[in-house]
Amino acid sequence: MKTRILLIYTGGTIGMAKDYTSDSLKPFDFENLIKHIPELSLIDSGISFTGFETPIDSSDMNPSHWVLLAEMIENNYNQYDGFVILHGTDTMAYSASALSFMLNGLQKPVIFTGSQLPVGDLRTDAKENLITSIHFASLQENGKPSVREVCIYFEYRLLRANRTTKISAENFDAFASPDYPDLGESGIHLDVRKHVLRIEDESVPFSINTNLNTDLGLMKIFPGMSREFIENMFASQTMKAMIIEAFGSGNIFSLDWFKDLLRKKASEGLLFIINTQCAGGMVEIGRYETSGIFREIGAINGFDLTTEASIAKTIHLLGQNLTQEEFKKLYETDLRGELTYLKQY
Ligand code: ASP
């Protein structure tokens, strides 16, 4: 029996065309997109199409769009064997990471893809990305989908969504998964690396979790940050969690006024999540004296989370009405293959 794939079009460069009045690229409708890919009719899967009423540049994506996507998957979950989501590359890693947390008990592939050049461009990367994503989503073994997690497919590589980050605004090879191996590769054959794929417990029924909360902040630190700027970053009364992108293995400057500010905010109930600015390796709170303050205030270890996965996980967990202890415990737990543990000091 043919596999059935649902293609969900949200916008992004893949379906854009030049608007000659403004001289910039704008998302186009879906008909325009498929008109440029007649090869779709050659694929041996039953493909259906749906998408956003108005396609958008992914810079305009926000959690309400993530909810829309989760609902589209939920409403069609039983009718299809896999889902391919066409999305702009700019925030693809955020949306894909978010979906990985919002879909519970996923037993089917959800593959995000897009392109660096519009589908109508002579040198476009859109066709290969779209067609191979559909092929990966159609792969089956013993009547079950081979891939059963949220992924990004781009330029011959299948990557775990919540391990992926956009690294190039120029190259076709635009995404990297710095801390987790590729899940698959497209060459003459489609190679799926079974040993690194995620296996969800089959007894967990599929459901979606659409409670999200965006009362969070993100602070990337740098040498010489001014006190005024930092204090302003912490001025919000509604903020519930602050993600700090610290140096190296989770280190930060040792200024007394700054440590006092962290102590005060933590005692008022602000959650602190510590990530690293490095693309490889992970946070080890307490390894250096310069991360001692984080241990003192009970900060949460982000291990090797990407910024995108960290934001998505925070928005997801803040929406679950957890106590501080529950939040910390779940945040430091590998929920969807998004983090690697290391001993804590
Ligand atoms: N600005 C575009 C978007 O993210 C870029 C792309 O799709 O590559 O929608």
Task: Spell out the blueprint of helices and strands.
Layout: E1 4-11, E2 16-19, E3 24-27, H1 30-35, E4 46-56, H2 63-76, E5 82-86, H3 92-102, E6 103-104, E7 110-113, H4 126-138, E8 140-141, E9 144-145, E10 150-154, E11 157-160, E12 165-166, E13 175-176, E14 184-186, E15 190-192, E16 207-208, E17 216-220, H5 227-233, E18 241-246, H6 256-267, E19 271-276, H7 292-296, E20 300-301, H8 307-318, H9 324-331
The site of aspartic acid has 11 residues, from loops.
User: For the report, how would you describe the main beta sheet?
Assistant: 8 strands, mixed
**Global morphology:** globular
Helical content class:
25-40%
**Beta strand %:** 15-25%
Q: What is the total domain count?
A: 2
How does this model look, in words?
- The chain has helices spanning 30-35, 63-76, 92-102, 126-138, 227-233, 256-267, 292-296, 307-318, 324-331, and strands spanning 4-11, 16-19, 24-27, 46-56, 82-86, 103-104, 110-113, 140-141, 144-145, 150-154, 157-160, 165-166, 175-176, 184-186, 190-192, 207-208, 216-220, 241-246, 271-276, 300-301.
- The strands form six sheets. Strands 4-1-5-7-10-11-14-15 form an eight-stranded mixed sheet, sandwiched between helices. A four-stranded parallel sheet has the order 17-18-19-20.
- Helices cover 26% and strands 24% of the residues.
- It contains nine helices and 20 strands.
- It folds into two domains: 3-208, Rossmann fold; 216-331, Rossmann fold.
- 40% of the residues are buried.
- The mean pLDDT is 94.
- α6 (256-267) links the parallel β18 (241-246) and β19 (271-276).
- By secondary structure, it is α/β, with parallel strands linked by helices.
- Bound molecules: aspartic acid.
- Residues 11-13, 57-59, 88-90, 114, 116 line the site of aspartic acid.
